[in-house]
Amino acid sequence: MDSDSELDPAIVAALPVGGKIVSIVPRGDTNWSDGFRVAVEVGDDKKEFFLKKALYQYLSDNISPALAHGTLESKPDAAFFLTKFHDLEPRVIDPAHLAAIMTKLHTTSSSPTGKFGFPVTTFKGYVPANNEWADTWEEFFARQFKEEIAWEQSVRGADAEMQQIADEFFAKVIPRLLRPLQTEGRSIKPVLCHGDLWHGNIEFDVTTQDPIMFDSCCVYGHIDLSLMVAPRYLLGARHVAAYTKEIGISEPREDFDDRLMLYNLRNELVVAGLWANWAHLREEVKKTMCSLIAKYPQGLAGAEPIIKFR
Predict the structure, then answer these.
(1) For the purposes of burial, counting CB atoms within 10 Å of the CB of 49, is it exposed (0-12), middle (13-18) or buried (19 or more)?
(2) Which of 112, 199, 257, 288 would be 234's cystine partner, CB 3.0–4.6 Å?
(3) CATH homologous superfamily for 95-295?
(4) How many separate helices (H) and strands (E) can be counted in the chain?
(5) What does each C-alpha distance from 250 to 180, 196, 259, 270 come to in angstroms?
(6) What is the pTM assigned to this prediction?
(7) Which residues pair with 184 in a beta bridge?
(8) Dist CA 35 CA 82 (whole Å)
(9) Ranges in the chain, pLDDT < 70
(10) Strand order of the sheet with strand 66-71?
């Protein structure tokens, strides 16, 4: 692209009034979107934007907020997102630095309804998340996981074994690991979570050296949802340890590792559906689900699941 005639009219309309587009350079492409660095002259000033607000109000140094967004005129089933341009470089964030950022977010944010969810549909890749408000974390998590299992099978094909495993998993493991967070005098506060925090979604501003987080799938959820740990990710055990040192561990503390394992199942299954070369993760998810069922064969004594798989 090298002229404003090549930008969709909806994007041109979102740029500063009276500005002249100087250059449009491809930048930051992904499988799900196209990114461009757009330079605009306004009088004697030159402004640069990246084309591709909840987090920003809490982490203004680490989030690039949307200046404009909307639907493309030339392609109504596509949308755009316009923000200030940051020249970013990939680098693994120091565990203590990430812990400080996450602690700030999780101690200053709160759900506007007091419930778990989010006001709008968000997306992980192109997968929509049902963020309907729920009174309990167990209900919200189970509902999203159920829909993600169905979505992955719509992409990779039906799996009768997965459905049988999920029946037992939803009846036993989810109530056992999540209901104790909000029973017997315990409570958790819904806080704003990034929702897709891995090393690929954190890069450093070359000028300020501040870490910038992007591609979020925000939700007001349990604080530990931000701890995404898998062997292929560079945010690992040291980052988890630094975070829990800062903010602590929800009770029951002894369930912490298994809760993280539970939370990561959702991400692994979505990745299996999004990327053909990671489709094998479905089998890993099933193995993990079976291991948790084996660990908690009785589930939670006397408890019926809030949401059944079938």
Answers:
(1) buried
(2) 199
(3) Aminoglycoside phosphotransferase (APH), C-terminal lobe (3.90.1200.10)
(4) 7, 12
(5) 10, 21, 10, 26
(6) 0.83
(7) none
(8) 10
(9) 1-5, 26-33, 35, 37, 43-54, 228-229, 231
(10) 20-26, 36-42, 45-51, 79-84, 66-71
